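Sample A.
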Amino acid sequence: MFGSFNFSFFGPSTNSVATNTGEYVTYQTSAEYVEKMEAKLTSLLSKVKGAGQVEVMISIKSGSGIDLAENTETKTSSSNGTDTTTVSTSPIIIENGNAKSPIVISEILPEISGIVVVSSGANDVNVRMYLISAVQTLLDLPQNKIQILVGN
């Protein structure tokens, strides 16, 4: 269901991403990122007055990745009146002591396609609206990608 991308061959084996609350979430794969975000959202949304017991499930469209700085080398050769151009790229590697790692330009987080929140207090329209508003604010998702269900 969830894509997986392990960054271990690109240097450090974990990645950190700042959340809207200023805390950092550390993860290794897209599935682990989703699990940690679900746990943080469950914890936060269960604190909404009247929400009661809350459970969260996040669905993603794509996995995570990184964009590396690269060296590009272009070679042109002529043979029998025909010019051939070869372009090759390789990541720029930096050394820090004994450790070697590429220069990371940007990290690509999993794209969230939707979220389901099950709340025992969601039968109250005000609680439902608070939960929708919180999810929209935290994840920058449109309302049609958020489903709030009444739980036991």
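Sample B, a different protein:
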Amino acid sequence: MSDRPGVGPGPERVGRTRPRGTDLPEPDRRVTRAERWFHGAVAAGLALVFAGSLGGLDLWRHHAPDDPSADTFTICGLRLMTGIPCPSCGLTRSFCAIGRGDPARAFRDHPLGPLAFLLLGFLMVRSGWIAAGGRDRFPRAARALVWALPYLILLWVLVWVVRLGVMAADGSAGAAWRASPLGRLIGQ
């Protein structure tokens, strides 16, 4: 038996304080320099997203404000080629609507836009905190987000399928396909 604390099998051992198998991250863990740089870049990138949302990034779009079908320009490759929206179509407009204080419009532009805005806001604050302070003060919240990610992706796909189903039911999906470059190419 050793006289040093934390060595040996006795009750004086100060190693693990949690039962085996719980394996939760330590609160207030110091992070490495590489992690600080990574989180700083994440926070800066998300800050640009929020600055664009709050600054009216979508004001460059030339469309009637209450008629989303009157869009004259889009950056979505899937929509440009097929006329069918991708799973994230409408997120830019949704974020900008939140920035203008119009949550109803944000939900109409993309049903998961407000949730994505909140999650990205949390990630920006967390990453900024880690980059500035060098400590991870929210490790359990980060682990919860990692565990929730597959469910969020499943929800994202489900919303997309429902949106496509609505488009198919009202006939706008067929019209969009026929008017698209790929639809015209294949249809000839």
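Observation for Sample B: The helical segments are 33-54, 77-82, 91-99, 103-109, 113-133, 139-170, 172-179, 181-187.
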